[in-house]
Amino acid sequence: MDLPCAQRIRASPDVVAVRLINGKVTLIHRRLWPALVRVADRFASDRLAAIEEVHTGSGAHQTIAVPFPDWVPAEDSTAADLLTVDEALAQLPACLR
């Protein structure tokens, strides 16, 4: 059975789900991870935790959170160090500036 589009996107290793905007699930593509890391101090750390929703054996949903920056690959942290704050903000959508 095919997964719905949103589930396929969330299953990608190049997408992280966080609760960045008003506690709602926000999907961030990997090309933006360095910019997000560079300006992470502008957000509450719990908003930057990677979340994964899984189904338990009973059919209930369980949310697993990986704290920020534990989910950030080393190469993206390194790339973040090379950005200025202005460069990082320019890469992010207006709702995150």
- The class by helix and strand makeup works out as alpha+beta
What is the number of helical segments per DSSP (H or I, 4+ residues)? 4
| Unreliable sequence segments | none
- Order of helix and strand elements from N to C terminus: HEEHEEHH
Beta content: 25-35%
Q: Report mean pLDDT, rounded to a whole number.
A: 92
Overall 3D form: elongated
Major sheet, described briefly? Answer: 2 strands, antiparallel
Strand elements, count: 4
Spatially, the strands of the biggest sheet line up as: 1-2
| Rg computed from alpha carbons, rounded to a whole number of angstroms | 14 Å
What proportion of the residues is helical, as a percent range?
A: 25-40%
Termini gap: 39 Å
Describe this structure in words.
The protein is of the alpha+beta class and 97 residues long. It has helices at 5-11, 33-38, 74-81, 85-91, and strands at residues 15-21, 24-29, 50-55, 61-66. The strands form 2 sheets. The protein has a two-stranded antiparallel sheet. The longest helix has 8 residues, at 74-81. The mean pLDDT is 92.
